[in-house]
Prior knowledge:
This is RimJ/RimL family protein N-acetyltransferase. The protein is α+β, with helices and mostly antiparallel strands. It has helices at 22-30, 32-38, 46-55, 113-127, 149-157, 186-194, and strands spanning 7-8, 12-16, 63-69, 72-73, 76-77, 84-92, 97-104, 139-145, 161-172, 175-185. Helix 1 (22-30) crosses helix 3 (46-55). Bound molecules: coenzyme A. Coenzyme A binds at residues 34, 37-38, 102-104, 109-115, 144, 148-151, 153-154, 157.
Amino acid sequence: MTRGPLLHGEMMRLRPIEARDAERLWEAVQDPEGTRLTGTTATFTREQIAEWASTVSDRPGRYDWAICPAAERDGKPVSDEMIGEIVLNDLDEDVRSANLRLQLLPNYRGRGYGREAILEVLRFAFDGVDGEPGPGLHRVSLDVLSINPRAQALYESLGFREEGRLRDIYRDGDTWADAVVMSILEDEYRAMSRT
Length: 195
Ligand SMILES: CC(C)(COP(=O)(O)OP(=O)(O)OC[C@H]1O[C@@H](n2cnc3c(N)ncnc32)[C@H](O)[C@@H]1OP(=O)(O)O)[C@@H](O)C(=O)NCCC(=O)NCCS
């Protein structure tokens, strides 16, 4: 598998994750709200994160992009700093399906970056970009915890549909949360992107 391509939106651009993103990935796994809302329970060392950052973009069956601000000056990006990550993983070439996940760093949430990042990745997943075919997917799925209404509302507004729930699959402090399984199929994506 080749590395993910560069993808450009209006507010943000996506580039493959690289070794220099280790510090920002480390921030992401230290962020209590982010780990709670993504249901991340595993813990990592800095060394593991550094190893991950330097190898993940060349691992098969997945595309891992850093979300970066799109602003340019004199034709060059003002900043190449990662402000979040978005991932297509569990790619199945026979079924033409994959899983989507994303996380923005705390200061960058609620500003529209997530919506645009998902739209660019779906375009690549279903239609390809710049005349290149991309993985030609038929289905993109994800799961979102019931304690995460912002993410769920965002996915619904982009055309993802709820398929079912894994009830009380996640422990949230003294209580439990469901995982809501959602997906979007290629014809649903095309209908959504025409509107
Ligand atoms: C979930 C996440 C990726 C969304 O990205 P984002 O850039 O913050 O989202 P956007 O600003 O593009 O859009 C958020 C949408 O949710 C809406 N929203 C915000 N807070 C909300 C809430 N509490 N309940 C319902 N909707 C809410 C916004 O109005 C916006 O909708 P709009 O575009 O129609 O106005 C980001 O907030 C994040 O990284 N959160 C922490 C990690 C996480 O939850 N990851 C997803 C795991 S499934």
